[in-house]
Amino acid sequence: MDIKTFVNVVSKLPSDVAVLARGPTGIGKSEIFRQVAEQVLLDDGNVGLEVIDRRLAQMTEGDIIGLPELVDGVTRFAPVDWLLRACREPVVLFLDELNRATMEVQQCAFQLVLDRELNGHHLHPETRIYAAINAGSEYQVNEMGPALQRRFWTVDLEPTKEDWIEWATGKRNLDT
Predict the structure, then answer these.
(1) What is the DSSP letter of 11?
(2) 56: buried, middle or exposed (CB in 10 Å: 19+, 13-18, 0-12)?
(3) Strand bridging mode 128-134 / 92-96
(4) With 0-12 CB in 10 A as exposed, 13-18 as middle and 19+ as buried, what is 83?
(5) 117 and 64 in contact (C-beta within 8 Å)?
(6) How far is CA 150 from CA 14, 129, 146, 154, in A?
């Protein structure tokens, strides 16, 4: 799918549809999801969401589920700040490099995508989950389980010359 169509379609999807963009490195998948976030129409009529960008290849399980703490004689996981924010207000939760994350981190992401919650913390009903992976055999990646893959609406991004020209002459103001 070309980028212009992708941004238009994804920004109109319901909040409970998790989206996975697959494409070669360097095509701007992170920037594309920021464009989507700017165009999301919320239930209250407002437009645009902030993006919480998490590079899963750089994370451990504790970076997602939090660290254990003792509360009233019971051990629980103290939630991380960005997860609480995604639960309290609508945001785009962007999980980048999902297929470069360890299997343990992918399993944490699985519960977020499948149940829209993690350790009893439920995402805000209008929070969106978007993820990106690099495609191709020249990248060091980890296999994603088929159950995780099936939880996403997956799109192969294929940028066009027109997409690039629009990007270059838009915010970048490059002389083409």
Answers:
(1) T
(2) buried
(3) parallel
(4) buried
(5) no
(6) 17, 14, 6, 8
Distance CA 61, CA 70 (A): 18
Residues 6+ apart with CB under 8 A from 98: 20, 56, 106, 109, 131, 132, 133, 144
In angstroms and rounded to an integer, the radius of gyration of the C-alpha atoms of the chain is 17
Overall pTM surpassing 0.85 (yes/no): yes
Structure tokens at 162: 């027109």
pLDDT mean for each 10 residues of the chain (176 residues): 92 95 87 92 84 95 91 92 96 94 92 93 97 79 85 91 77 61
Q: How many CB atoms lie within 10 A of CB 143?
A: 10
